[in-house]
Amino acid sequence: MEEGNTNHSRMPLIGDMAPAFHAITTQGEINFPEDYYGCWVILFSHPADFTPVCTTEFMTFASMMNEFKALNTELVGLSIDSLYSHIAWLRKIRELVWKDIKHVDVTFPLIADISMEIAKRYGMLHPSNSSTATVRAVFIIDPTGMIRTILYYPASTGRNMQELKRIVMALQKADCEKVATPANWLPCEDVILPPPGTCGAAMERVDQVYDNQYCLDWFLCFRQSNCAPCDNYHEPELLPYPSLYPSRSRRNYRIP
Asked: DSSP state, 143?
């Protein structure tokens, strides 16, 4: 096991570089995150092979592979089971039918971490929960190898894969356009502009009116989406998004 440069005395946090490791997986050996530079990665752990909730998660992830690929996003799973247990479980998953998911192949790598070194390095083991099974941890890592999101789910609760996809899309939107996304944001909805940093800029922000911007107040200004209904990943806007109304660009927007 190769040591990375990250301080392993604490769990990695958002903004840290992802701890480096070499691992054996169901798709061969990987060097992480080196092999994935240039791509987004969802690194996730599951408690054990052949468990019911994990099985539904892997079936769902596998069924969404093309959706994640379209977002330049790779999936990497991990548990402390052996490589041969992983292979047997993934072969069994191929035989299963659940909802509209039928006979899927899990083609993303699943790390065998029997020594628990990687799990410990990423804080995937929570001793009060179990000292021998990883929790449902999720690390979303950007193309530079930086950790951008960390999520933990209890053993009884399956992850929402659409939410993980939404987070990746929101991060990509924020990075590309230097904006933030509001609560419950979906693709093709309006985004939040960075707040002004001075009194003068705050006054200028509310005094100026642009066709594609509107403000609720000086610190809360939005930019309209220019998505069309036929765009990929389009979702209908819901209240209070102003594109439901003919006059979207007026200052100090309020719902009638």
From this structure: T
